[in-house]
Amino acid sequence: MDGRDRVFDDRTPGVEHEESTANFLSYTAGLVLAILLTIASFVVAQTNLLWPPGIPVGLVVLAFAQIGVHLVFFLHLGSGPDHTNNILALAFGVLIVFLVITGSIWIIANLNANMMPMPTNISR
Amino acid sequence: MTLATIDTPRAAVPTEFARGRGGGGPSPKRIVVAYGFWIFILSDIVMFSGLFAAYAVLSGNTAGGPTGRELFNLRNVFIETMCLLFSSYTCGLGALAAERRQSALFLIFAVLTFVLGAAFLFIEATEFAGMVQKGAGPSRSGFLSGFFTLVGTHGVHVTSGLIWLIYLVAQVIAKGLRAAVLRRLLCWSLFWHALDIVWVGVFTLVYLMGDFH
């Protein structure tokens, strides 16, 4: 960018510093992995391949795996020292998302469980 | 001796190189811009998490109306998912072409990305219209309010991404692939990849788990 040969650049998601072939391969590998994980999700949801009570857990695991594939192969997030800022921001985002989603589900389930029984014509 | 061994790895890095952590001056503009946009994307995902939470809480409250199992067509959802995934791929290849200043190749990939994104939106709009026609609009039940808010917000993001892409293609044609345009393209590709990540959550939580229940 500024003409100097920078040894320890900060990096940013979406930018790959490797050679162009590695870049192309990274996108293609990401695509193939994401397609496989998507097909796995749809198969698991529609068949009894997995133990039926375990299907939601299986779907969540497959979704997290696919999100990881997107982050690594499409957004090029890495674990090196030049990625510290990006990973820290991501970790904070994941923390907030976790708090909002699990907190909401937990609180509302608790409220539902402690609700006074109501006549059906009012509660519906 | 101990001091020397501790210092050895640090000594390999000359201090004049900026590392964005206070030493050696600020990072280049491209890094700063994209990092700021990364923060925006994360806050956008935090907003989506609120909608996900609302949907998860409301998904059982069908008020005697249709359930997800009766409404969703998983074959369409699979096609939608593939459209978005392949558009993310062509977006990445387009960004590569732009980086290498191959504007013709970039334009081809931009058109492919646009067509795939538009196909996704078309399938989604058809699905929404069909549901409203069946009397399963957003006002039917809490479940459907949550559904239309979550999936609709994602659809609005995809729409704005497509409008943004048209604007960027016009800039590439008018101004060429200069540094400022490349920075905007980088932000846009981050946005587009992030939409695909949100969609992974949508098809898992809304469509696949909705079909399973």
Describe this structure in words.
With about 120 residues, chain A is mostly helical. Chain A has 4 helices and no strands. In chain A, helix 1 runs antiparallel to helix 2. Chain A is flat, with a radius of gyration of 22 Å. Mean pLDDT of chain A is about 80; it is low at about 1-5. By secondary structure, chain B is mostly helical. Chain B contains 7 helices and no strands. In chain B, helix 2 runs antiparallel to helix 6 and helix 5 runs antiparallel to helix 6 (about 140-175). The chains are: A mainly alpha (about 120), B mainly alpha (about 210). Chains A and B meet through helix 1, helix 2 and helix 3 of A and helix 2, helix 4 and helix 7 of B.
Low-confidence stretches of chain B: 1-16
Determine the mean pLDDT of chain B.
88
- Percent helix among the residues of chain B? over 70%
DSSP strand (E) fraction of chain B? Answer: under 5%
Largest sheet data of chain A: none
Biggest sheet architecture of chain B: none
* Overall 3D shape of chain A: flat
Taking all Cα atoms into account, the compactness measure Rg of chain B is 22 Å
- Gap between N and C termini of chain A, in Å? 63 Å
- Name the overall outline of chain B: elongated
Largest interface: A-B, 55 and 56 residues
Structural class by helix and strand composition of chain B: mainly alpha
